[in-house]
Structures are given as C-alpha cells and as structure tokens.
Amino acid sequence: MVALITGASSGIGRDIARYLSKLGYDLIVVARRKDLLLELKKELKTKVEVIELDLSKEENVYKLYDMTKGRVDFLINNAGFGLFGMTYQTDLDTELKMIDVNIKCVHILTKLFLQEFVKKDKGRILNVASSAGFMAGPRLNTYYATKNYVLKFTMAIYEELRRMKSNVHISALCPGPVNTEFNRVAKGKFELKGLSSEYVAKYAIDKSLKNKLLIVPGTTMKIGVFMTRLVPYKLLLRITYGIQKRKEK
Q1: Known catalytic residue at 143
Q2: CB of 155 closer than 8 Å to CB of 111
Q3: Selected catalytic residue, list 143, 144, 149, 158
Q4: For residue range 110-162, what is the model confidence (pLDDT) as tens digits?
Q5: Top-confidence residue, 83 or 186
Q6: Helix, strand or coil for residue 239?
Q7: How many domains does the chain have?
Q8: Which residues span the domain enclosing 116?
Q9: DSSP per residue over 56-76, as a string?
Q10: Which residue of 84, 215, 216, 235 is surrounded by the most CB atoms within 10 Å?
C-alpha cells in the first residue's frame, strides 16, 4: 500500500507519515523543504519517495499527479497555511497563494485521484480541513473560507460515493488548535492549548481507516463544533472575532 502526503515536512503531515509507515505503508512525501523530507525519510522503515514541489503553483499540482498516478492507494491532502489580520489589511498576494494551496491544490488532487479510484473501485482520501470549516472567521477570514470549501467539498463527495455503493472512501479531518508551525506562518498564537500533532495524526488515520466522514479530535473541539449548530450566526461571529483577535501577535 502506498500513501501520498502533501505538506509532509512538518506538523500533522509529518506525523501522519510516521504513523502510516508504522502501519506498513510505503510513502510519497511532498513539500517545498526537501531537507526536512530527507530527514524524515531517514527515520522511517518503509520505502519513502521524496518530491520537492511548491503546490501553490497549479502546474506543479498536475505535475505531482502525473508523477504518482496509478501508484497511490491513500491520498492525504494536508498542505495548507493561514494568515491572521483584518481582511482590508492583509496581503492579497499571500491570500491568493493560500487559496491556491488550501483550495485549488486540494480540489485538483482530489478530483484526479477520485476519478482513478472510482475506476478501480478502491482507494482512500483524507482531506485536512479544520474546525474553522464549520464557521466564518473574522481576522482569519481567508483561511476559514478555504477550510469551509474543503469541508463541504469533501462531504458532498462522501455522499456521492455512498449513493454509488463505492469502495472508495473519503474523510475530512477537522482539528482545532494543534501544536504545529501554523502560528509562526500565520503570524499568530493559539489561546487554547493545542493538541499534539502526533495525537491528531494517529486519531485521523485510525478514523479514516474506519471510513468516518468527519474527524474531530478532542472532546473540547467536538463540543465546540456541536455548539456552532445552536449559536446564532451574529453571536458566533462576535465570539470568533474575539478569539482571533487574542491570537494575533
């Protein structure tokens, strides 16, 4: 079995790679930082193919598929990043790059591998969304919006596959705060204590292998996600604004 993991150089992606290797999967790991991927390769016992690519560039996403098509059993779309700040102040180019990575890359790889998996009637996809995907996010607006896209896109495909009685399975990972490089890249910090990326990675893979659609690690975040269904939108916006404001450096 072969798993393809984007954003595998650190955080959840790296720990998913470690866990899948322990389960016996050969790996194709993808990120911009080749040195970190090579370090990861050294510590793993199964076969690891390292691919250095910037997935914010559309041509590289298609290149990745061409390099790996026909060889992948489990696709993990993990690459992504965020940016804190008021929408009128944040950098547009960074936001457009975020849309390219968080949405366009996920959409293209999901679509192409889904077509391949459906033909074979086997395969598995895990899209890393976020608990942010259930809400709007003032002061982290574009990130929340991208994760809404990933979550709803994944949920709709799940239902299509279910109706087809397909042996292809898709899941969405929706964590809350996780101790990764996200804060440094996004220029913010979490108020809530984050879960370890090791815990989130293992929890995500275990639930994905059980064909669970929505994977929400941690009791606190499960309660939080449930409460978003009950709280009025305007009140939820005020709460979210306050949380994000306290995160900014």
Answers
A1: yes
A2: no
A3: 143
A4: 999 999 999 999 999 999 999 988 888 899 999 999 999 999 999 999 999 99
A5: 83
A6: helix
A7: 1
A8: 2-247
A9: TSHHHHHHHHHHHTTS-SEEE
A10: 216
